[in-house]
Amino acid sequence: MPEIKQLLPHVVNKIAAGEVVERPASMVKELVENAIDAGADRVDVVLREGGTAEVRVVDNGCGISPDQLLLAVTSHATSKIQSDDDLFDVSTLGFRGEALASIGSVSHLKLRSRVATSDAGAELQVDGGSIGTVTPTAAAVGTTVSVSDLFFNTPVRRKFLRTIRTELGHCIETVTRLALAHPQIHFSLTHDDRLLHDLPPVSELRDRIAHFFGQPLAEGLLEISSQEGDIAVTGYVAHPQNSRSHTKMQYLILGGRFIRDRSLQHALSEAYRGLLLRGRYPICFLQIEMPADQVDVNVHPTKLEVRFRDGQRLYRQMLSALRTRFLKANLNATLAPLGSAPHSTKQTASLPLGTASGSRDGMPNRAIPVNLHERKNLSSAEQDTSGEGEADLAAFSASAFSDANRKDTPHTAGQPINVDQHATVPAIQVMDRYLIAESDNTVIVMDQHALHESILYEKLREKILSGPLDRQPLLVPEPVDLSADEAAALLDQRETLSQLGIEIEPFGGETVLLTGLPSLLAKQNRGKLLQSLAAQFASPGGTTERRDLLDELLHMVACKAAIKAGDVLATEEIQDLVAQRTESKTSHHCPHGRPTTLVLTREDLDRQFLRT
Ligand code: ADP
Ligand code: MG
Fold first, then answer.
1. Residue 42: nearest ligand to its CA?
2. Which residues, in sequence order, are bridge partners of residue 430?
3. Beta strand 186-191 pairing with 42-48
4. Which of 233, 229, 177, 254 minimizes the C-alpha distance to 208?
């Protein structure tokens, strides 16, 4: 009979490490959380080789006194809770007391610290679980934890580490989450001696968002502020114009922690129902505050998921806060895109947001709901794609690329209005950005960029579905200069790019050689196209999953290649574009979900001029 033995502490730690330390990004999270718990207002994260060679976190927090250093690296030792009652009333980010012990058991860890009341600091080294002795050393007030050679003594786990680029991506995402949750703290992130992010403290979350995701996105955000009883939901959601093909830009923050919560993600999707095309997901940056006893954060080893005492209540509050906000923003009161049947414009009662914006006070009825028919396709169950697995290309073409989701769309716009047929005047361009055409008894206004983009997107998509894109090898390969980051990011996606007919090769240093291009894109400014693709890949919100990637790529390529607003078009170009639109099945929305076309029927105009 096998004998039962108590496991030795270092074995226990190694096992625990499997839960807490999965990759460099998990160390970044644990160490930065410790710094925040220590009251730091400045936290510097320094990485080497994506964090696999070293993760170092420097803070200016309260520090650890020399006599406590040993305890800090001992498992189940924490300064953050005293009794079991505290477990359900945690105000700190950590409290399990196992991060440092776990990390130390699978790496070389050096802990150096000084408290404000002492002029000297002390340090302690842990190598693969064996703890050294505390030695005095010079140090600034605060704590520096340096972790090198992760998993050096657990080769199996080391094998699970991915490319430096991928690990770096996870670390950047981790810092992004922490920095969004703590805008008042100064963060910096340095990789291989390159400063990637310097984030001085800001009083507005919006400024942090702008730093990470760009000013245009930040400016278009809608502010949310809802307080019901002791639960507050505040922050921002993006305008439906800004959506993603994944849910990764849904930042939910609870008590300073980034969390994932299916139910809340669902509430989000519900709120946007009818405002986004199928397969597109909202972006949000929402902070939830509630009394600590309303939520159990101790159900997940890294506290990524939590359990709410009354999840239903939070769900309802979030949904109603967003809906109310959308109503206020009048998101529902735009003219109908071509997608909704132009002849059912009187159908204002069934707005997605549950209001009838109609002819009140005898005023003319201006508002036509956004595409009512999209709603049918947004069954929430289908939307739940938060699973992070990598789908292969076959699965991708079967879902995102297939027309199945469009076939059951009952909109009459499936048969595009033939602009040319009964037009009495040719289409014209106004304001260097809109095209206006007349069809029988309707005036059609088209956004030239959105329209061209949707036509290109559809062409590319169809081509990819029906086989490999016909590519044009470049007679003279074109070198394109990028930043090191961007070059690496782009080369990481070589295979996927090749699916699209974009062939690249490393050319040494920060240069990438473009050797082939789909003939569809032959006329583009190639350097620019490649640069903007690379910049997108290298950005923290950038997609890394293959399935999303190809779709995102199509969007990007179509967007980059399309005529821009502001481009003056020749008469033939205008007629050409309008004619292509007529052939196109789905040109009523650009790939971002914006309408490409507004249709004004004669009744619409009559009503505007109070003729009815
Ligand atoms: P936990 O954070 O769950 O308490 P850790 O293993 O992460 O467990 O840390 C153990 C203890 O070490 C903490 O409770 C804290 O007292 C101390 N500590 C860790 N990092 C820091 C830091 N950066 N500044 C001050 N104290 C720290
Ligand atoms: Mg901790």
1. 1
2. 434
3. parallel
4. 177
Q: Which ligand is nearest to the CA of 62?
A: 1
Which structure tokens are listed for 448? 């030239």
Contact 257, 181 (CB under 8 A): yes
Q: Which atom of ligand 1 is nearest to the CA of 81?
A: 4
- Cβ(586) – ligand 1 distance below 6 Å: no
The rounded distance, in Å, linking the Cα atoms of 246 and 389 is 12
CA atoms within 13 A on the CB side of 452: 20
CA dihedral 501, 506, 510, 514 (to 10 degrees): -30
Give yes or no for a contact between 370 and 331, defined as CB atoms under 8 angstroms apart: yes
48 beta partners: 54
Name the residue with the closest Cα to ligand 1, atom 19.
Answer: 34
pTM assigned to the model: 0.61
How would DSSP label each residue in 157-175?
HHHH---HHHHHHHHHHHH
Looking at all shown ligands, the one closest to residue 103's CA atom is 1
44 touches ligand 1 (CB under 6 Å): no
Q: Is 80 in the pocket of ligand 1 (CB under 6 A)?
A: yes
Asked if residue 463 has its Cβ within 6 Å of ligand 1, the reply is no
Q: Tell me, what's the pLDDT at 592?
A: 62
Reference 208, options 178, 175, 179; nearest CA is: 179
Counting from 1 in the atom list of ligand 1, the atom nearest the Cα of 57 is: 23
Comparing C-alpha atoms, which of 266, 179, 279, 286 is closest to residue 222? 286
Half-sphere exposure of 398 toward its Cβ, with a 13 Å CA cutoff? 5
Q: Does residue 261 have its Cβ closer than 6 Å to ligand 1?
A: no
pLDDT per position as a tens digit, 535-569: 777 776 555 555 566 776 777 778 877 888 888 88
- Residue 179 — φ and ψ, nearest 5°? -70, -35
What is the Cα–Cα distance from 341 to 277, expressed in whole angstroms? 16
- Residue ranges, the chain, pLDDT below 50: 332-422
Say whether 523 sits in a helix, a strand or coil. Answer: coil
**How far apart are the CA of 28 and the centre of ligand 2, in A?**
11
Burial class (CB in 10 A: 0-12, 13-18, 19+), 590: buried
In the block, tokens 């800004």 appear at 242
What Å distances lie between residue 515 and 407, 445, 530, 531, CA to CA?
37, 39, 12, 15
- 317-353 confidence digits (pLDDT tens): 999 999 889 888 766 433 333 333 333 322 222 222 2
Distance CA 520, CA 118 (A): 68
Write the pLDDT tens digit of every residue in 24-40: 999 999 999 999 999 99
Q: Are 548 and 243 in contact (CB under 8 A)?
A: no
Q: Which residues contact 382 (CB under 8 A, 6 or more apart)?
A: none
490 exposed, middle or buried (CB, 10 Å; 0-12, 13-18, 19+)?
Answer: buried
Measure Cα distances from 130 to 8, 147, 334, 434 in Å.
13, 14, 66, 70
Query: CA-to-CA distance for 446 and 429, rounded, in angstroms?
Result: 9
pLDDT digit string, tens, across residues 236-249:
999 888 888 888 89
> CA torsion sign, 185 to 49 to 170 to 558?
positive
Nearest of 532, 536, 540, 541 to residue 560 by alpha carbon: 532
Q: 105 alpha carbon to ligand 2 midpoint, in Å?
A: 15
